[in-house]
Design goal:
215 residues, alpha+beta, Glutaredoxin, Glutathione S-transferase Yfyf (Class Pi), Chain A, domain 2, 2 domains, 8 helices, binds glutathione
């Protein structure tokens, strides 16, 4: 398999999951400005929509959409428990989380990453995103991980997204102007996830190692 990824982007979640599962996946880096791979291939020929992640299977079929790729990867090693069994209620609960992260957090961040163009729209977007983070923070009071008692693909996804925010404890990859310092449980969760060997490995491989981290 191959994972097409853009460093520090949402594809970091799939990268973390690959390392958590110990899967043998070739990582293909894509430049988000030129849309060329590190080997000089036009990424639009891989995904005509131009975005990562894309997972290419051994038979050449490709999967887009992070929330699907995450579940596909988890299902390759079900005993690792990164996603509950298909058809179980818990699987739907996980999908509820993934849909929330994709639509409410991931896409909520986008105007903040393009603040100059977004202008006054930020006055609407920032409070909504903060409200969602406040809710998330309360959820993390009830359980150690996003979807329950154990680390799941939802934690990998949220980890990639939270890194775009602003707080002294964050590995801020991009610089969205949204202060997450008040969310104490989010911070504890983030630091626990950041300490996982798979996460450390993924951050280092994407050039987001300790030297770029805040303490
Ligand atoms: N709907 C896609 C969106 C993925 C996405 O937004 N990827 C961003 C990085 S976080 C990207 O590749 N942007 C480059 C581009 O759109 O050209 C998914 O959830 O996987």
């Amino acid at each position: 398999m191959k994972l097409y990824y853009i460093p520090a982007s949402c594809s970091l979640a799939a990268h973390i999951v690959i390392r958590e599962l110990g899967l043998n996946v070739e990582l293909v880096k894509v430049d988000h400005r030129t849309h060329l791979t590190a080997q000089g291939q036009d990424f639009y020929a891989i995904n005509e929509l131009g975005y990562a992640p894309v997972l290419e299977l051994a038979d050449g079929r490709r999967l887009r959409e992070g929330v699907v790729i995450l579940q596909y990867l988890a299902d390759q090693v079900p005993e690792a428990g990164l996603a509950p069994s298909p058809h179980s209620f818990e699987r739907y609960r996980l999908q509820e989380w993934l849909a929330f992260l994709a639509s409410e957090i991931h896409k909520g961040f986008i105007p903040l990453l393009y603040a100059a163009q977004a202008g006054e729209y930020l006055q609407t977007v920032r409070p909504k995103l903060l409200q969602r983070f406040a809710w998330l923070d309360r959820q993390l009071a009830e359980r150690p991980f996003v979807a329950g008692e154990r680390f799941s693909v939802a934690d990998a996804y949220l980890f990639a997204l939270v890194g775009w925010g602003s707080a002294h404890w964050l590995t801020s990859y991009y610089h969205a102007d949204i202060a997450l310092d008040e969310f104490v449980r989010l911070r504890c969760w983030y630091e626990a996830v950041r300490a996982r060997p798979a996460v450390i490995g993924a951050l280092q491989a994407e050039g987001l190692g300790c030297s770029r981290m805040h303490s």
